[in-house]
Design goal:
globular; alpha/beta; Rossmann fold
């Protein structure tokens, strides 16, 4: 079972359908059923919207989420979900979840924001969720801010949009994509299939 955390940020049904197509058993978990996270083989934090609102809405899930994270349960953050893993953001200020050290900053002023469209990946190192994905494969992005990890060793793939943008991260059982795999066609489905496989291993 893969729990998709419903913290009222973005369209959950695309990722629900994506996980289902990828062979997983998705379950939406909202604030009234937080304990269900303990049943999960994997957890997905999707998200579209403002950093501050996301962190605020996530509060009710934090205790059980961190319990599962410490137990080694695979976690996948997508777009805003990825950004919330960091300590802080220039967007609406405040503190993130501090799963990873680093910050989230606005894209350069000389590019159009939000960055909305297809961009290719440059893969820096192997990670289970990029199995079968090649350098140059395209994925769909929608964001105005990007992540700056303190330790670049967690960065496994980047893209270019007015400079280098971190696109995929792995740190132990923490996985994250700045792009939306559920909106990225066949290649995005492959990423979700890989995450389902990680959750089963």
């Amino acid at each position: 079972m893969i729990a998709i955390i419903d913290y009222k940020m973005g369209n959950l049904f695309s990722i629900y359908n994506g996980i289902k197509k990828a062979g997983g058993e998705p379950v939406l978990v909202d604030g009234s059923a937080v304990a269900r996270l303990r049943e999960a083989d994997g957890i997905v934090i999707p998200g579209v919207g403002a950093f501050g609102d996301g962190v605020k809405n996530f509060k009710v899930f934090e205790d059980v989420f961190f319990e599962m994270l410490r137990s080694g349960t695979p976690v996948l953050g997508i777009c805003l979900g990825m950004q919330m893993f960091f300590e802080s953001s220039e967007e609406s200020g405040g503190h993130g979840l501090s799963v990873l050290k680093g910050s989230v900053v606005r894209l350069p002023s000389d590019v159009t924001t939000p960055h909305m469209g297809w961009n290719s990946l440059r893969i820096l190192k192997e990670t289970p969720i990029l199995g079968g994905i090649k350098d140059g494969d395209y994925f769909y992005f929608v964001h105005s801010y990007h992540c700056i990890p303190e330790d670049a060793r967690c960065v496994v793939a980047v893209t270019d949009y007015g400079g280098t943008v971190v696109a995929v991260i792995q740190e132990k059982n923490v996985y994250a994509t700045q792009f939306h795999p559920e909106k990225s066609g066949r290649k995005g489905l492959r990423v979700l299939e890989n995450f389902v496989r990680v959750c089963r291993s």
